[in-house]
Design brief:
Elements lengths: L2 H4 L3 E2 L10 H10 L12 H21 L6 E4 L2 H18 L4 E6 L4 H13 L2 E6 L9 H7 L6 E3 L13 H11 L4 E5 L9 H4 L5 E5 L10 E5 L14 H4 L7 H39 L4 E2 L11 E5 L5 H10 L2 E2 L15 H6 L3 H4 L2 E5 L6 H19 L3
Parallel strand pairs: 1-11, 3-4, 3-5, 5-6, 6-7
Antiparallel strand pairs: 2-8, 7-8, 9-10, 10-12
Length: 393
Amino acid sequence: MDHVSECPTTYLDHAATTPLRAEVAGAMAAVLAEPLGNPTGSHRPAQRARRFLEEARDAVAGHLGRDPREIIFTSGGTESANLAVFGTLAVAQERGRSLSILHSAVEHPAVLESCRAAHRSMELDLAELPVNAHGVVELDALIEAVTPTTTLVAIMLANNETGVIQPIDEVARIVRAASESTWVFADAVQATPFLNLAEQAVGADLLALSAHKVGGPVGTGVLAVRPPAEVRAYQHGGGQERERRSGTQDVVGAVGLAAALGLAEAERIDTGARIGALRNQLASRLLAAIPGAVRTVADSVPTLPGHLHLCLPGIEREELLVLLGRQGICASGGSSCASGALQTSHVLTAMGVPDSLAQGAIRFTLGHETTSADIDRAVAVMPGVVAALRHDP
């Protein structure tokens, strides 16, 4: 019998994806209980689909503290980021404005690569804002860089690798003081399960999130666009989503996203406190059990309660993850989009983490289903795996 199959699965990779919640699956199944048409049609199945779609839009808007007309359903966080970047640039270009973007040095690849692609294809000024040693954007640098001609400032709400929370409201205040026509875009994909986006992302003109990070289905996301900010579609066709994103809407996915957000909102305070306590237990026990282990972000820095990022000197992260995987421990070396990549994380580089530490980076991320037994098993397995890789006697 395969030894790997005998190992229980300890899932500590919720930042990559959170498994579909049973309640969400049930809400989606209810939609499929009867024939579902295209929501643009006029017959009964189409009208049924339209009703579910708009009810989901209303619910999502309510959870985000937004108007339903601001909600654009997308295929996920990556499409939302691309639409935020290219859509705002298209509007500015139509109006004869100069084009420029500021983004933090620790943005998700979906944002970074969208900005870089725009820089290559358009006459666009692109500048990167530095972060401090904890990964928090340097606000003084933003004050110096933002001007009335800046089109977009992209600062994520919480980092996908470290979980560090950015001061979006302060970012928005600085941007508004410099320009009334510069928009703030916040990637809230990682923040969604744990932060109240209606309160903690109020300064963002554009807000992106993805269903599968919060226990919803893969392939569904949202870009919320608050007027006077606007986006132009770069995906053309039938003119759905108020001419901002063409393509037949995924009604079942939208219902799933709304259900997942509702669960997160109802459980946020209790789940956040429980998960934060488990994360702290995992941190203290691993730091005590593994010589030389370093917690990448200081305890005093605001982070998402589910994130624990460690650096282990003398370790290659890919070897570590392979051995942990054989023991059923599911974790990652950083961004799920860079899984298998050998280069140092751009997030850790921006924070000034030495390569000798960054090469041994590992990210544990907890979710609503994480238990103390999961923590116990990770602590039982991890030190031995590290010792074996270091060839400790």
